[in-house]
Amino acid sequence: MPSQISLITYNVNGIRAAMKKGLTDWLKENKYDIVLMQETKAQPEQIDVKEFEQLGYHHFWFSAEKKGYSGVGILTKIKPDQIKLGISNDKYDNEGRVIRMDIGDTTFINTYFPSGTSGDVRQEFKFEFLNDYLNWLNDFRKKRKKIILSGDYNICHNEIDIHDPKGNKNSSGFLPEERAWMTKFFESGWVDTFRRFNQSPHQYTWWSNFFNARANNKGWRIDYHNATRELENDLVSSEILPDVKHSDHCPVLLKIKL
After folding, report:
1. Does 83 have pLDDT greater than 80?
2. What's the whole-model pTM score?
């Protein structure tokens, strides 16, 4: 196992569509050790996994029961000791939102947090998920100390993380209750690895498909690698890769010593 690993989180907004836009070529060129993908929108049998196998990746998938919806996946060049699907709660597991992997004493959790943008019912579902998931995480941390929780959180934490904080103060993804949850999450012992290295504004991971938002960099930072404090001294670097365009999101890279 390499002493330093490169870890990507990427909401691909449909893995089959992303592969048609050059996802595999990008992976071939960059040789990342671990790639955590969200919103795969496919059942495992619908994915051309041979392309990933040829690049030396082991692959693991957790799909939603509803076809073409949600779903998470892991590509890893390091053989894991264990893979676990879900958090033993059917309400969320039926939507294929969480997959975790243990490598040695480090756990990688890949999560696609719910979006509340489609209306009040899903916003309430999102709040329920946030509450239940934090309880699950706090319980899980009694067993495993070194954890990286990567994925699309569908929340901007601070004003620096969104292009128009005033205009979006009532928007799902930047609601006061969601931001307060993020604050509580970080205060419970997690490190925002990107902000650990980079305090600059205008660094985003998602852009609306409307109003030329990406070209004008009017975006949101909603994709994260967050690590427990036990890993803080092992963090090497983190950066957002906005020029990678297979999705309306872009990847976030974390380098860490294992």
Report:
1. yes
2. 0.98
